[in-house]
Amino acid sequence: MFSRLIYRNAKRSRKENVIYFATLVTAVASFYIILSLGRQDVILFLKEFESDAIDKLLALMPIVYLFALFLLFFLILFANQYQLNRRSKEFGLYLMLGMRKERLVLQLVAEGLMTSILALIGGILIGGFLAEIISLTVSKLVGQGIIGHQISLSVSAIIFTIIGFLFIQLIALAILGGRLFNQEVHQLLYEQMDKKQDMGHFKGNVLHILVGIVLLGVAYWIVLYRFMDFAGLLLFVALALGCLGTIFFMRGFGKLFGLLASLSEGKSTKGLRTFTLRQFQENVANKSTSVAVTSILITLAIILITNGASTIIGFDSAITRTSSLYDFTVHGDHQKVEQFLTSEKMVPYVEDLNLLEIGKMKFQDEREENDLPVSLVDWSELREQLIMALPSNYKEQLLSGEMQGYTISSENPEALNLLGVLEIDAKAPYLIPESSYNGLLKAIGEKPLNLHADEIALYFNPDLLHMDNLESMPVLDRILEKAEKEGRSLMSIHDQEISIRPSTPMRGLVADRSIEIHSAFIVPDSMFEDLLNTETYVSYWNFRIPQKLQDEQGLMKPMMEARDLLQSSGFQFESYLQNFGRQLFYVVAGSYTTLYVGFLFLIITCTVLALQFLTQMKQTGGRYVTLSMLGAKRKQMKKSMHRQVMLTFLLPMSLACVSAAVGIRAMISFVVISIEDNALLYPIAFTFACVVIIIFVIYGIAVARTADHEIDKLRWKPNID
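Structure (tokenized):
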């Protein structure tokens, strides 16, 4: 009998509180998804290249999981308190019929556990399905269908999901069971009296609004104009001011909302407009702090979702090659590497095979007074021309001695970056023989350099110098072309005047990171042999996957096959896969956690708003009885209630949108959020905006339907309709 009662009550509670049960299922599904991250195809793929970074990311997931449990605990506590208030008369009746309090508490815990078990089953099934969908989608997106997808079930994720979820449920039920145990029968039967609504004074409420506006204004100003001051510490000040401003604004606004109701008194005979506004005012006035907190959480949710979405939007630009050219770079014995790469098993994977030789220029035999070696390079004329090409403010700082050092930055003028690089590198520059660089130019379809004996080309690493145009450097080219027309030499090497070839296309020298230099001199092969410091000589073999093979199988599959062959050879090598994996990791790490926490905030906020509204409706249910006695129709009451639901969700959402817009604008300005103008921007942004709106609409409709059901249960007047 007792077990039947538990089963029946648990089933009824789930039907009457679908919102809460659906949130529990969603939470369980999200727990499983975040805990099973290590089993997803893209993570297993990335472990091969970025194992340390992936391990750090996976080590962060338990912290995210515990944070989510912490938030969900308070949501469960709040929701179960709503359940307790809703069923207080029922519990009081059980005690009146002779049930002991211990047995009543046991019944409450058993019902909660039954609901929790069903939520676990549903959540794990949905979470497992969604995890597979996410894994498959990401695999198709980043691996071009090549990253093998295998259906996987994470047993550890299931275990920790069950343990964590049941743990917080038991704690919440124990707390509520204690509250139920300490209540007397009359308190349960007659419920607690509604608190008197303190609407305050007009002047005080206006003051609250003004204080809130000022605090929010200061917070917005700090975020927009002082975002990175004091190493970002002011951001915490802005966050604190924004939270306080939101609380003050909601407190004053909620209580002053009655003015709008007063203005509508002349129309009170038309519908229930005044009643609707009064109900909404009461729901906000004494719960202003709760409403403010939900608004803050919505703000954070929008910003986090935008950040995660921007990472996905920037996915193409993040992994699209810019200066990268080669797919593989192999290092080892010169002849053995060449023999292996031209072998029968490697030939299908090798195209544009090119030997890259590189080393530093030697110094003069004599030394300076401070015992430093003397450079063979004199580039004083070029340095003077670069200084003259600087904008006036930079030129004045440099000539006056105010500028003591150089920082390579994308925000610097081109001439300043060139000065900074050459000041360091030109004393003992790296040398690249013309034949090596001609092989690179041939691979990209450019003409060979054909340098004269007294001519060189300057090479600058486009990834480190932030070049906008890989084919030329406008400022440098203008200087070199002008010098060529005037017949002047801007550089000499070993007291021999050297001319510099302008407009040299710049590309990455290797597949990934084996050579990280800012600049080099591309010199004729004979000059390379004469000027090379043989102790610094290094050679690499570069090659690309044949275009025909890419067209047939895509890029990733032949690259991974070639990688497996190279691994078996024993040679040291690097591949574009490493660069691809590194950038892909930034995309995954930057989107998974932020989107997860953002949607978690959003779902929790919607649930709190929903339960808060239903709690208030339960406490004020007698007013609907009074409305019926005064002649109100059930249809009118439902329409009034629907408007209350809309206002309840719109109020915190409206202020959150303003705050989030300010935060997003600041993050875009300071390149925390990077959104480029590409074809994916608007579709993905629109998709995420629709998802947020749909979540709000779903919760709003669910609240309205639940409230409709409560009104339908009012049977005190036969002709109410």
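The two ends are 39 Å apart (CA to CA). The CA atoms of residues 467 and 473 lie 8 Å apart.
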